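MOSC domain-containing protein
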Amino acid sequence: MNGIVLSIFIASKAGEPMRSVQSVKAVAGRGLEGDRYYNTEGSFSLGRQGARQVTLINAIFFPGSGFQSIESRRNIVVYDVELMWLIGKEFKIGNAIFKGVKYCDPCDKPKNLYGQQKSFKKAFFDRGGLIAEIIESNIIYVNDLVVLPPKNY
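Structure:
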């Protein structure tokens, strides 16, 4: 079964508020056009091009967490996708191709930036999402399908 993109967020520099966009160009080897990691200005890129191209998180973990999805600092919020299953696998969002790289550890940057009392790190323990790289460039849109690779049992 395939999932769906519910939201796309980017921020041009580390520490700046995320902003919601309806579409964005996913650029192979770089990230989402206009995002801090595309410009090597993200907290975890340290000036290294393509070090952390895009992050995804599952929407099912937000109800009751005390956080809104935009506060997660993740780029793409999806529904009905088991993200950890995508580590090491290629998948499509719209017509762009991605590859799951590793689990995205939650930190407390969202708590600190948004003045939250609750710890994002604790609220999203084992639910931090996925870091992915972009294999093939294309524009992605809110409501695009997340097309998963076939399961080989």
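Residues 3-147 form a domain with the M1 Pyruvate Kinase; Domain 3 fold (CATH 2.40.33.20).
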